[in-house]
Fold:
Amino acid sequence: MKEDIQAFDNVLSFIGNTPLVKLPKVTEGLAGNFYGKVEAFNAGHSAKDRIALYIIEAAEKKGLLKPGSTIVETTSGNTGFSIAMVSAIKGYKCVLSVSDKSSADKIDMLRAMGATVYVCPANVPADDPRSYYEVAKSVQKELPNSIYINQYFNELNTEAHYMSTGPEIWEQTGGKITHFVCCSGTGGTISGTARFLKEKNPNIKVLGVDAYGSVLKKYHETGELDPNEIAPYKIEGLGKNLIPTATDFSVIDKFMKVTDKDAAQAARELARTEGLFMGYTSGAVLQATRQYAAQGEFDKDSVVVMLFPDHGSRYMSKIYSDTWMEQQGFLDGEPKNEINYVK
Ligand code: PMP
Structure:
């Protein structure tokens, strides 16, 4: 009887093997064939599930984790959610330190998954004891049987994508992929995937996406971190004001910067036209792809894969709020969808 029941052990079975989807409407008129790798189909709705599971299972293999151990991380959202989800299933405690820039919704999501959250001031230097980096480090030092994921400086972050995202895209395109467009925060997704793809075919072009206000593009071009590049911006999860060691710049061919407004409008267009309700950085990837196309990067035979990192539900109070869009001055040119109140 029991054998007849078609059930999975838990939701960890739904990490990885995300679908590749054609994008005819948002790429209409562009030379090339365009696909989205939709990471929102992971159990925790983002690509970060892959690294959470991979890094936690690596620690288990090394004997660093036992039932009741604690997993600590600094995170503004997706990685924390994924770690909390994997921890809940595997019976670990999860402590996350986040910046006070994180939305209340995101913090509540982490708590809903059973995590303990420290909300830390965003406007203090990284070495201040109140910064989310320092708070995570001191929590980890104080707790026995705890590990610090440290995604920005952990090679296993990159390896997780080398082992899963890269092979999946190679397989799904039958080895025909010519261009990979991906944003870079920790750089784990772009570098791990790119390393795998370039080992298979060194001619594949890896096109990075960066934000105005982030140092990555300039660093890639000059090898120097230019503090003049640093400025506030709205897109969450891509770009950086430091150079993460999880990023392998040697497998990235170039970077393209996008504006907060263009990325927000592109994400809304993805939802409206392709039915893909994606996060802010997915809009950034689509926008960057259009800018690369305008520079003549692709031809009719190009097979272009864009990686869409997470789901739109995490941005309800930002890019999917007309009020927020209006406040930022991003609403002009956007179609106004009706809302009718029936009394
Ligand atoms: N998009 C979103 C929404 C993210 O949370 C992140 C992770 N910071 C990224 C893109 C970038 O991924 P990675 O850290 O692997 O470079």
The two ends are 52 Å apart (CA to CA). The pocket of 4'-deoxy-4'-aminopyridoxal-5'-phosphate is lined by residues 78, 183-190, 237-238, 279, 281, 309-310 (CB under 6 Å).
